[in-house]
């Protein structure tokens, strides 16, 4: 296996199971799972300059603009220049992808294609623990007690934009923004598109793709 550092991206709309797939990749291959949502929550909580800027948009119900997310993620990536990593939630737009280009080459991009009806059902049954970002789904990852976070015992909430009436608009926005990103990586020959409705059925294909780029942890332990 090549020893060069692996730079990978998982693309997919809200509800596609990106987080679950990324966690499995991190566990199996030892990649750092870098989630833009996680970093954003951390900066909001710590009231950093980037966090305070993002909060001004979020408080108005607006999307955090490209330049703010890019600044946040580039800063995080620069501190991990000697690690294999996996991006989740970034880049979401062509502007973000071009900013990523300026600091590194992306080796592998996996785009999760999940049917619209499946996404709509998943998102409308998704509940979140606000302070940690832990996500539950009433169908396949329910909390032990309905409406309560397993770890803290605090109440779960359903985000306004996860309510059924808001989901369709969210998915359309994602599709419009992601299309040029997908085309960019497709033109470079690093894009792999996987379709399905269940993460467990998609996972073997993801595992194979990453195994071709980096040795799984279990295999390394056997040497």
UniProtKB/TrEMBL annotation:
Kind of enzyme, top EC level? transferase
Please state the span of the N-terminal signal peptide per the UniProt entry. Answer: none
Keywords annotated in UniProt: Acetylation, ATP-binding, GTP-binding, Kinase, Mitochondrion, Nucleotide-binding, Transferase
Record-listed a ribonucleoside 5'-triphosphate binding positions: 15-20, 126, 135-136, 199
Tell me, what does this protein do in biology? Involved in maintaining the homeostasis of cellular nucleotides by catalyzing the interconversion of nucleoside phosphates. Efficiently phosphorylates AMP and dAMP using ATP as phosphate donor, but phosphorylates only AMP when using GTP as phosphate donor. Also displays broad nucleoside diphosphate kinase activity. Broad-specificity mitochondrial nucleoside phosphate kinase involved in cellular nucleotide homeostasis by catalyzing nucleoside-phosphate interconversions. Similar to other adenylate kinases, preferentially catalyzes the phosphorylation of the nucleoside monophosphate AMP with ATP as phosphate donor to produce ADP. Phosphorylates only AMP when using GTP as phosphate donor. In vitro, can also catalyze the phosphorylation of CMP, dAMP and dCMP and use GTP as an alternate phosphate donor.
Q: Give the family per the record.
A: Belongs to the adenylate kinase family. AK3 subfamily.
Q: What is this protein called?
A: Adenylate kinase 4, mitochondrial
> Which organism was this protein described from?
Mesocricetus auratus (Golden hamster)
Q: Which gene encodes it?
A: Ak4
